[in-house]
Amino acid sequence: MPELTSQPILSVGLPIYNGENYMRDPIDSILNQTYKDFELIISDNASTDATQEICEDYSRRDSRIRYYRNEGNLGVTYNFNRVFKLSKGKYFKWVGHDDIHKPTLFEKCLNALIKREKDGYVCCWPNTIIIGDKAEFVRKVKEPPIHLDSDSLHQRFNDGTYGRQSSFQFHGVVRSDVLRETCLLGQWSSSDYTMIGQLALRGKAYQQPEYLYLRRYHSTNGYETSQRE
Questions:
Q1: Is residue 2 situated within a structural domain?
Q2: Number of domains comprising the chain
Q3: Average pLDDT in the 107-122 region?
Q4: Where would I find the H helices in the chain?
Q5: Backbone angles phi, psi at 184, to 5 degrees
Q6: Is 164 left (phi over 0), alpha (psi -120 to 50) or beta?
Q7: Is residue 1 part of a domain?
Q8: pLDDT for 226
Q9: pLDDT value at position 3?
Q10: Position 228 pLDDT exceeds 50
Q11: What whole-number distance in Å separates Cα of residue 30 and Cα of residue 95?
Q12: Tell me, what DSSP letter sits at residue 138?
């Protein structure tokens, strides 16, 4: 089993609340990545189901996992921001407790970002597949034209902030030092777009063309598979 290094290259943040129904698939997909030098930070927002038991079992079996449990439910925003604030890596990635990553996602997105950093890139995210409640294929996401790799600062800010895309950059691999300069998630509607816009002011984002991120749509996370981007 891979060991956690004192200074992992990549930190992966998993905020969770009552995730027993879906959480094993995402955690397994993280632990089975071809890229191994990462830490997985789990912040449990005082779950009342079997989430704590499942997390503790995983953390006993893999030293790369750091599990934290809040004494009370402090809200989604706090929990998402907490996993980043607890991170140690040079790069960071948020993950959802119900989403799945193909095995090469970390490796390909991280390598693509590192290769382009000298050209001002701060984020890399892959193409997305929508899956259903049972992880069945639903459709590939077809993003509208966006220009987060533009040399034009105002073009990047406009396309990152004003909702012309699905905000999947939020789940991309990001430079931690740049992410730290943003608002992270805020207590207002669509604050993920605000954060993406702030990233765009600081650098470019690259879209890995392969479909490596599987976003699960189901009724309990507010989505139905019949919805369209």
A1: no
A2: 1
A3: 98
A4: 24-31, 51-61, 76-85, 105-116, 153-161, 176-179, 191-202
A5: 55, -140
A6: alpha
A7: no
A8: 42
A9: 55
A10: no
A11: 9
A12: E
CATH of the domain at 65: 3.90.550.10
pTM attached to this predicted model: 0.92
Domain that holds residue 116: 10-221
17 belongs to a structural domain: yes
The number of residues making up the chain comes to 229
From CA 143, how far away is CA 135, in angstroms rounded?
21
Residue-averaged pLDDT of the chain: 92
Where does residue 191 fall: left (phi above 0), alpha (psi -120 to 50 degrees), or beta otherwise?
Answer: alpha
8 A C-beta contact, residue 56 and residue 27: no
Residue 3 lies in a domain: no
Contacting residues for 94 by C-beta, under 8 A, at least 6 apart = 12, 13, 14, 15, 80, 83, 84, 170, 171
The predicted model gives 178-207 an average pLDDT of 95
Is pLDDT of 103 > 90?
yes
Rounded Cα distance, 85 and 56, in Å: 21
What's residue 165's pLDDT? 66
Rounded Cα distance between 108 and 2, Å, is 19
